[in-house]
Amino acid sequence: MNTNQQKVVKYYTNPETKLGFDYVLWGSKHFGFYPTGKADITEKEAQILHQDLVAKNLDLKENQTVLDAGCGQGVVSTYLAKKYGPKIFGITLVPFEVKRAQERAKNLGVQDKTNYQIMDYSDTNFPDNYFDAIYTTETLSHSPDIRKTLKEFFRVLKPGGKIALFEYTLASDEKFSDWEKKMLDVVIEGSAMMGLKDFRHDQFTAVVKNAGFENVKEQNITENIRPSFYRLYKLSRLPYKFIKLFGLQKFFINTTAGYEYYKMADKGLIWYCIFTGNKQKEFAAGVKIQ
After folding, report:
1. What CA–CA distance (Å, rounded) separates 43 from 120?
2. What's the whole-number mean pLDDT along residues 253-259?
3. N or C: fewer beta carbons within 10 Å in the chain?
4. Would you say residue 28 has pLDDT above 90?
5. Cβ(121)–Cβ(148) under 8 Å?
């Protein structure tokens, strides 16, 4: 593994990270989606609605072949495979996640609909034009070269295939205070989000278009994710008092992010967006159509 890949593995095998994802997010690595006017539903219910939102934005259908790029422990992929019936390939750099995803698939009876492998989503071994759909759920920021990763997604996506990227975006640097910049960098370094600063408000659609995708759209759903942000903020408030007092932020990355990133999101410095697009269809003769 190269240095950046090792950073990702180190983050996800960190005890604080593993405990947080297992006991605060129940193995999931994504926030919950709270429909407008339904902020009182449970976080688990909201996570399921988030997963359904992935399916909706991909127009997911039975027997499609789908890539979960950065699959984690298989929470999203097993749910989608069971409910919607596609064949999903999940890839991650973290060995223990592959094992857990396989166990989850077996327990849910979708082992024949899922396939999990250790692989870098920026450099896969899949053939050209292989997938009907590709999605990420808060994982693309781990790429040190977002443009390279998007070009790889484009390569392995079939003509007419769709992408759905559920990711954060940031305001421009001058909008952040010196303290916010410092905390942003601490969390980026500690959580191996090497590419996060490439995601900028109202600018990332151009990056996706430049990778070759068409009909690229951005949906800002920050307000629907806010209850999830606030939940983590509440859980982090007490321990973070001591973490901040003793300057231990880099040792407690997730607690720091739970507190500091919520404050930034509350000021509009961090958004949560869905980016969708498709690979243009082609005639057999190679003439492109809209």
Report:
1. 30
2. 97
3. C
4. no
5. no
- Look up residue 207 and give its amino acid: V
Please report which confidence band the pLDDT of residue 284 belongs to, taking 50, 70 and 90 as the band edges.
very low
- For the whole model, what pTM was predicted? 0.95
**How far apart are the C-alpha atoms of 261 and 254, rounded to whole Å?**
10
Residues linked to residue 164 through DSSP beta bridges, in sequence order:
135, 276
Are residues 67 and 89 in contact, defined by beta-carbon separation less than 8 angstroms?
yes
C-alpha span between 16 and 173 (Å, rounded): 29
What is the rounded distance in angstroms from the CA atom of residue 55 to the CA atom of residue 88? 12
How many whole angstroms from its chain centre is CA 217?
17
- For residues 290 and 285, give the distance between their C-alpha atoms in angstroms, rounded to a whole number: 15
For residue 169, what are its two tokens?
Answer: 């975006």
For residue 94, CA distances in Å to 8, 14, 100 come to 8, 11, 10
> From CA 127, how far away is CA 117, in angstroms rounded?
15
User: Which residues neighbour 215 within 8 Å (Cβ) at sequence distance 6 or greater?
Assistant: 276, 277, 278
Are the C-beta atoms of residues 104 and 73 closer than 8 Å to each other? yes
> 235, 229 in Cβ contact below 8 A?
no
Residue 288 has pLDDT above 60, yes or no: no
What's the gap between Cα 148 and its chain centre?
17
CB atoms within 10 A of CB 216: 19
Nearest to 10 by CA among 136, 72, 69, 94: 94
pLDDT band at 283 (very low <50, low <70, confident <90, very high): very low
Per-residue model confidence (pLDDT) at position 200: 97
Q: What is the mean pLDDT of residues 220-236?
A: 96
- pLDDT classification of 285: cutoffs 50, 70, 90: very low
Average pLDDT over residues 5-25: 91
Positive or negative, the Cα torsion across 218, 185, 21, 66? positive
Q: Calculate what percentage of the chain has a pLDDT beyond 90.
A: 91
